[in-house]
Amino acid sequence: MNVLDLARAEIRALIPYSSARMEADGGRVLLNANESPWSPAGDAGEGLNRYPDPQPAALVRRLAALYEVAPEQLLVGRGSDEAIDLLVRAFCRAGRDAVLVSPPTFGMYAVAAAVQDAAVVQAPLGPDFALDVDAVLAALTPAVKLVFVCTPNNPSGAAVAPDALARLASALRGRALLVVDEAYGEFADTPSAGMLIAGNDHVAVLRTLSKAYALAGARVGVLLAAAPVIALARRILAPYPLPAASIAAALAATEAAALAETRRRIGVLREQREWLRGELAALPEVVEVLPSAANFLCVRWRDAAAVYARLLRAGIVVRDVTRYPGLAGCLRISVGTPAENRAVLAALRDVEAAA
Predict the structure, then answer these.
(1) What is the number of H-type helices and E-type strands within the chain?
(2) Which tens digit of pLDDT belongs to each residue from 152-182?
(3) Which of 32, 159, 193, 312 ranks highest by number of CB atoms within 10 Å?
């Protein structure tokens, strides 16, 4: 079965919107988009009076090299959230199809499904928050078109073993699209699921520049998949998904020198994660610190509400994840700078943080 056979017939038949910038074809005098012919105040040569390229060729090539795929296997958009939404809308018929998730996990998969009126089938993570491939396959129904796997998982932090993903990809061939969310992949030791795309046109991978590359404010997300899936997603992509400033920021962040600094920072965060894990585990209020391959730690407390309030009084905001299945009493703490991490521990120990 061709992977597009799983997609909505009306999306496959849709004639996509052709933006003015797509039709510009290198013209010097651009009078086809009803733009202002003058740059705005403070433009500084950025050309903000012009619409940006829908899929900037230089950025697509740069990211394709970074993620080791062909340019036609990559789509850039507004964070991973947009890619999630595009896939759900492209593959799920309202009121008929479904997505499968393994809670506790990233909430946007279910939100995107609800917006599309697609059902959500659940195959919970195991007791140790590991992906249960057998449970996923047992929960699969003909209605399921997308299976979402987050690795490292948010908010629990555990990574999925490559052999588990390979087994799942093999079992889902012809049945559903496997969507592997690697928003935190740079912080883990496991190889990317992107290596599965070459032999599996039903595997898609989500990446983002928001975390390791420090561009959360630029909102640059990436969808990696077989060329037909990318072409399908482009049919329903907004005409100009990335602002010019975000494109420029992404190109700057992926220059050789910037990549070297990013790798250094990732190393610092990983070291700090392990140090912070040990320090937190020694606190009497802590029940357990869940294993994490991401840039955060999920910590179970004897009294999570009191700990949250104590940190807030110290001006420190962490994430309350107690509402997630299996995470009662848990708070998620992002790994910050060494000084920020020391401040967290100081607040928890009821001593004043050093200036």
Answers:
(1) 11, 11
(2) 999 999 999 999 999 999 999 999 999 999 9
(3) 193
